[in-house]
């Protein structure tokens, strides 16, 4: 009987340690900013019936200096530079209405939105 109690205790401890380490790993992986280097852009209102070109930049990258420009009927605006700290997002309001193209650059990466 004593041998069975030791086996049950050992299995219980092993299960608790395994579950704890898996929970810690999952929590760490679900954090957007923890050791990750990415950024995203999206329209505030992506509806095709809305002509607004206002957009959001979310930054989870180490670099924080973004530039963006708007292309509207073959005219391109001067690039505008904005700083967005890691873990933050910023809404950008622009006067142009669709159809237009928003080009955002961070370092050597470029992303584009069209409407």
Count the domains: 2
User: CATH topology of the largest domain, what is it called?
Assistant: Immunoglobulin-like
- Proportion of beta-strand residues: 35-45%
General shape:
elongated
**Low-confidence regions:** none
User: How many individual helices?
Assistant: 1
Radius of gyration: 24 Å
What is the CATH domain class of the largest domain?
Mainly Beta
CATH H-level superfamily title of the largest domain: Macroglobulin (MG2) domain
CATH architecture of the largest domain: Sandwich
Biggest sheet layout = 5 strands, antiparallel
Summarize the structure.
With 115 residues, the protein is of the alpha+beta class. It contains one helix and eight strands; from the N terminus they run αββββββββ.
What does this structure look like?
The protein has 115 residues and is α+β, with helices and mostly antiparallel strands. It has two domains: 1-30; 38-114, Sandwich (Immunoglobulin-like), CATH 2.60.40. It is built from one helix and eight strands, in the order H-E-E-E-E-E-E-E-E. Strands 3, 4, 5, 7 and 8 form a five-stranded antiparallel beta sheet that branches. The relative contact order is 0.18.
